[in-house]
């Protein structure tokens, strides 16, 4: 079903309803062991995450968060979002603020995603602290 969602594998526009139905009705086990694996083998763009990375917009960012959550990689999603918001010319202040505020609130204990984990992963991946990266980019 995910293959029919992506325009690289079929004619016409992306079918968001099929993508939402697939992620919303399949178990995490089925998504990880069958759906994503099948898509990765058949996709012309090299996998669902590479396809989503080639698209733009808040809806696609939401889809990427769902895929990363299903794969147990949500911390990495936030790390990449923060880095992308600050790298190169220009800064996406709204994304930085929204991410930092939402991840620093303690009411999200169920997801086990908090700012401390994001800071740790950011440092491991990019070799600098999140605090320094934000200071350098916003000053």
Automatic annotation (TrEMBL):
GO terms for cellular component: cytoplasm; nucleus; plasma membrane; vesicle membrane. It holds the Pfam family Annexin. Gene3D superfamilies: Annexin. One of its GO terms (molecular function) is phosphatidylserine binding. Keywords: Annexin, Repeat. The keyword Magnesium does not apply. InterPro entries: Annexin, Annexin_repeat, Annexin_sf. Belongs to the annexin family. PANTHER family: ANNEXIN, ANNEXIN B11. This is Annexin. It comes from Patiria miniata.
